[in-house]
Specification:
The protein has 340 residues and is α+β, with helices and mostly antiparallel strands. Helix content is 29%, strand content 26%. A seven-stranded mixed sheet has the order 9-11-8-12-10-13-14. A hairpin with a 5-residue loop joins β13 and β14.
Amino acid sequence: MNPNPDEVVVLDHGTGAKLSRLLIGDIIGTLEETYVGELEDSALLTVDGQELAMTTDSFVVDPVIFGNGDIGRIAVCGTVNDLAVVGAIPLALTLATIVEEGFPRAKLKKIFASVRDAAREAGVRIVAGDTKVVRRGDADGVFLNTTGLGVFRRTPLRMASVRVGDRIIVTGRLGNHAVHLLSLREGLGFENRVLSDCAPLSGMVSELLEAFPTGTVRSIRDATRGGLAAVMHEYAFHGGFEVRLNEADLPLQHETVMASDMLGVNPLHLANEGCLAIFVEPARAGEVCQHLRRNKYGRHAAIVGEIFSSSRGAQVRLADAIGAIKVLDELEGAELPRLC
């Protein structure tokens, strides 16, 4: 008998989709006046007149080392990206490590070398940390937790700035990270052709915001757990919009589509670690897209959708190549086993 997600926490609560949203809402609702965030990727704080961004995240990845990255690279990139998407310049990270008894020291050294290299690329410093060792079987190899701090040199980006008519740009191919990890785990044979997209995107975001007037880019979100679909539902619920995506414009690698079809999953629900969803003023969307394509992490950028008003409440819809429109439902739980 399956456990009742209304009574106990289940694995599907960690997918970043509908059950995650409901669980977070229930937990945060109990914090009342002590909670000051707005469910953005980073919180905005003002300290002695200086606007700061802060975010925290925990990282559990299986496998912890994969074809073109590892949990260390993901931890730095994920935290840096969460700061960047609200318009902040990342400055510093903390790093806490929970490692299981018996974990190979060589693997741990490799992971920390990746932390160092990703931090150098992103231009951030590791300023504090903590290490705990737990008994064999009490952790999945190694878990990392990071907290990031950033400063603002420009107006912060918020979900509330998105307007009807805004265009939606994604900066990279969708679903590759999840397919790469699953292929390694299950021996599907796609891992050499479909690589993880894990990357620090703060430089690309900073260049974009400096190149265009304030207000051109309305909001940005990192499409990680739950994939692009989860992000679209989040914005639809926040603004009461209809978000409409054009299937033919979605940047999907052929092998990722093949793997998704084989597994019976939708790549729009699959995790990414280096792909942004950017909401842009309609008149400048083409220019923004071209600008992104000049960056190595944005070369597959594409305009994939638009924000519409909705008299039927928040919804996400997908238009196919012949113009037929269907509802893209919010995923309840996980289509695949936990990857990250």
